User: Fold this.
Amino acid sequence: MSAEETRHIPIDIHLGQLSDWLISRRHCAKEWHASLLKIREKLAASVYPKLLTDEATKSDLEKAGLPLVSSELNYLTCKQLLDLLSGKEAYNSKNMIGQYQNPVTKDLNDVVKQYEKENIHLAELAQMLYRKITYDVPFIKKEMTKLDQSSAEYSRKTTECLKSGGDFREQYRQECGTLGIQGENVREELLEGAKVLPALYENIARRSAILEYVCKYVEEFADVVHKGGWVEDQTGPKMFPLLRHLIKYGNQPYPPEDECTVLDSAANAAVMDTAPHTGVDVEDNEGSSQGSMEVNLNATVADHLSELNNSVNNGSIDFDLTETEDQPGEDINWDIDTGGLVIVAEGGGDSEKKNLLENPELRTQTVNELHEMLAFLQRRLDEQSTEHMASDLLNIQTGDSRLAVDGKKVEQMIHDVKEVLGLFEDHRLQSLCKLQDSNTFLERLTKQLEQKLVFCDRMEHRAEDFRIRRNEAMEERQKLGPELVKLINSAKEIQGFIEQDISKKYNDRRVTILGGAQSVSAN
Assistant:
């Protein structure tokens, strides 16, 4: 094959085998690393320090993009630096035989010649190209990918934190709206809101009037079905005493004063009818034997109990009893029938009594009565839905037409009971009642609401922190983009120089380095 024919045969060299190819073709010596080390020592010791002492030259190096550190110099940068100095009048003077007279330019020219002397520059550039393509470019791309992922993650966390903070702030507004407060000063507004409880109680008492028909129906049902055999205090008006009181008297103390008077009178009458005369004389606490006092059974039991307590406390009771003749056939009955007595606590005046709905225990019992009434009505509705003739059969068996109520009326009664029950179970009313009944509930509720605002602020601060981190990641990502482009362009320049230099050694044959700069991109 002639030289002309071989000229058109390309030379393909893989990047990973480029250094070995240069050594195997004897373009470079195996010990080129030692020669390169001597060249760099000379650059660091004499050439570069002299250049950096001149501020004008240093400024020119910065403008040309040349490194200011000797360790970053290579063959190509040395040639660029030599061309830069050759354009300056102070460095380009030569003697008669064409040698540079300036020592800096002369040393730099010697360095370039040493590079070219055993093709050390080819070995150095091949190593640089391999490092850039194999390590530097992938590393920067990996960092860019990590920064993109971090930026997306920070954006997601920012959105989540803002959403969480917004949700808790909305919950705070809703709870404040439910409690009827603005939320600016929670504790003071809650204390102020508790003042509307009497109006809410009056509304419940007014709305409870619709249950009078329901109470009557349930009571009549119990009376008719059980025919008087039912427990006495579970039938008639005593089935729903608190609801009856709420319907009749409204939100007033329970039991009302007139009922208390009737109960006391009935108790006194019962005592007079059942308690026999014992003939017991009790001496006064001064020891007088002539003044005897007969127990007045017309006095109320509460008065005698009060006197007895005072006597016990004073320690002045004299148990010296006078003897009386026993009547034949009669025994003293010491048992007192206390059935039907209602003992009211001493000192419990009207000023100390609470209204029905202001008493937590009575309020709970009222709600229980509503639940019992609702359960009964729902049971009746289920029976009528499964047995179409339930009311007729019950009417035939009992002979009372009052129990014949159709399903629509039962549904209406259920609706009325649920309406009143909903007023009791209103969240605002329950919270205000707890504020009134418990001293610690106010602090606990205030802390609970304020904790939501604290969490909102915490989420907003975290969102701001994530936003700052995202911006930092995006800025670093933007900086790596031009750096990657610069690195790829530098690799292309080095690869082009190596291909041209090798091509000159083989009669301008086309040389291609496979897996080089053409295999990477800036994307």
About this structure: The longest helix spans residues 440-505. Strands lie at 11-14, 281-283, 292-294, 511-514.
